[in-house]
């Protein structure tokens, strides 16, 4: 790469607005003269990035305002904002190679100028410069600035400053609630930033309804939710969510069977939610079993391009139906089912780290469990169709259990198999379900149940 192209700068600067480590690399190593004259608008954007005093990520709005009357800069910012979010290691590798080439050209010219001088001391200086600078160029690496290592003592000051700044960004540190009181109480609010959560449930018990309950709950709170449906289709997922918020029967929603008065009230409610920025995005893949984690990553980037931000919560229904997209052997060979599910789970965690503070919630089907109709037995991580190692990347793992009698009485038991950072006062508790209303959790009935037990 002899000079920066506009496409490369779009991808590089897109990462600058998303990732602090890339922002620091650009501030420290990308020079104004590296950008060709014909891309003057990018020179101006770089100048703003370098001269900013903020420790946090740069803002599109701030830079746009600085050049409010500069059409070229505004167009460049639009191109940057819409650029794909590419792998940062690939960008850094190209940037490092470019900087080395530029430094070598400059060094070569200095050596030629010095050596052309007839004075002996100038020739000696040229040889010394060649020996020292060339070795420095060879050893130059952007990864030394971006290795990912934290030094316990040396980085203390910068870490604490960053923490104080980040603490003021309340929205990035808010939890994503499960919408189930006891789970939210134990976790002091729900799922932490960058974490993933898993439900393990028997087939036909209501995995999809359970996931949608948390999605609907967070949508009502104004969180950005992306629901990815891998089985059943987009329309079916939509109808289930609609049943949940309208509190109607599934058949009424499916037929649109509402009286004019009912429809008017529901329409007014939908308009209020829309005006308050409450929304939930639903996506499904056309063919069963065709989705991979590579597709999921691309879908999240599409969401970002549309909304200008990553979702707070991504719901995937469900983990069993995904392939890795990075390993054809384990994706296509049924003998590697355990390895495939383990890799998919790890890739989910990697995506939440990449698009922090995004969280993910998914479910997996339990293997055969002979004790399901015994009220004293319950599912654990050992009952996953894959293997107990499946839960390793997950910070939160829950199972739902219900016997025939419990199901008849709208009752179930939640077992907390793993809450990584929380001390458990209980790991098994009962809830009332609301499947007849399209909901997993009947909060009012659950609280009344516990209130009655306390009064006994």
Describe this structure in words.
The protein folds into 2 domains: 6-144; 170-455, 3-Layer(aba) Sandwich (Rossmann fold). The chain has an 8-stranded mixed beta sheet, with helices on both faces. The longest helix is centred in the N-terminal third of the chain and has 29 residues, at 88-116. It is 50% helix and 11% strand. The radius of gyration is 28 Å and the shape is elongated. The chain is of the alpha/beta class and 456 residues long. The chain has helices at 6-16, 20-29, 40-51, 60-66, 71-82, 88-116, 120-139, 156-167, 170-173, 181-186, 207-220, 234-246, 250-255, 260-275, 293-307, 328-332, 337-354, 404-408, 443-455, and strands at residues 196-201, 225-229, 280-284, 313-317, 359-365, 396-401, 411-419, 428-432. The chain contains 19 helices and 8 strands.
Tell me the layout of helices and strands.
Layout: H1 6-16, H2 20-29, H3 40-51, H4 60-66, H5 71-82, H6 88-116, H7 120-139, H8 156-167, H9 170-173, H10 181-186, E1 196-201, H11 207-220, E2 225-229, H12 234-246, H13 250-255, H14 260-275, E3 280-284, H15 293-307, E4 313-317, H16 328-332, H17 337-354, E5 359-365, E6 396-401, H18 404-408, E7 411-419, E8 428-432, H19 443-455
Parallel strand pairs: 1-5, 1-6, 2-3, 2-4, 4-5
Antiparallel strand pairs: 6-7, 7-8
Helix pairs in contact: 1-2, 1-5, 3-5, 6-7, 11-12
Name the helicity range.
Answer: 40-55%
Strand residue content: 5-15%
Mean pLDDT: 87
DSSP helical segment count: 19
| Overall tally of structural domains | 2
How many strand segments?
8
CATH class of the largest domain: Alpha Beta
Q: Report the order of strands and helices.
A: HHHHHHHHHHEHEHHHEHEHHEEHEEH
Radius of gyration: 28 Å
Report the sheet with the most strands, covering strand number, pairing sense and barrel closure: 8 strands, mixed
CATH architecture of the largest domain: 3-Layer(aba) Sandwich
Overall form = elongated
Biggest sheet strand line-up: 3-2-4-5-1-6-7-8
CATH topology of the largest domain: Rossmann fold
Q: Distance N terminus to C terminus?
A: 77 Å
Oligomer: single chain
Give unreliable regions as ranges. none
